[in-house]
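F.,

This is the one I mentioned.
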C-alpha cells in the first residue's frame, strides 16, 4: 500500500494532533491562557500543513505561499520559545530565544534569499 500517495500517514498524524490538542484543551479548561496557547498552536499547525502542501505542489502564488509558510513557522517558533525560555535558567532562556531568532532568520534566508 502506498501510504504517501493516499495521504494516510498525514491523516493519521493530523488526527493524533487533533486528539492531543483536544485533550490538552480539556485538561487546561480552567486556564484560559493555556487554552488560547493550545488553540493558537493547533490553528497555526493546521494552516502550516495547508500552505506546505500548496508550496510542495507549486499551487498558487509562490511568493505568498512562501511568505505564509515563513510567517507561520516563525510564529510557532516564537510561541514555543516563549513558553520554554521562562522555565529555564536565564542564560539558557536567552539561548532559547537566540535559537528561535536564528531559526526564523535562516528560514527567511532559505525561502526568500537563497534561490537556485
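My design for it:
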Amino acid at each position: 500500500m502506498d501510504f504517501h500517495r493516499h495521504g494516510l500517514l498525514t491523516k493519521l498524524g493530523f488526527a493524533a494532533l487533533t486528539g492531543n490538542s483536544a485533550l490538552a484543551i480539556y485538561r487546561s479548561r480552567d486556564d484560559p491562557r493555556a487554552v488560547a496557547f493550545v488553540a493558537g498552536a493547533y490553528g497555526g499547525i493546521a494552516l502550516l500543513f495547508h500552505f506546505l502542501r500548496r508550496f510542495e505542489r507549486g499551487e498558487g502564488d509562490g511568493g505568498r505561499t512562501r511568505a505564509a509558510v515563513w510567517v507561520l513557522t516563525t510564529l510557532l517558533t516564537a510561541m514555543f520559545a516563549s513558553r520554554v525560555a521562562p522555565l529555564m535558567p536565564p542564560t539558557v532562556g536567552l539561548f532559547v530565544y537566540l535559537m528561535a531568532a536564528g531559526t526564523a532568520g535562516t528560514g527567511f534566508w532559505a525561502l526568500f534569499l537563497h534561490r537556485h
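The chain has one domain: 3-113.

Talk soon.
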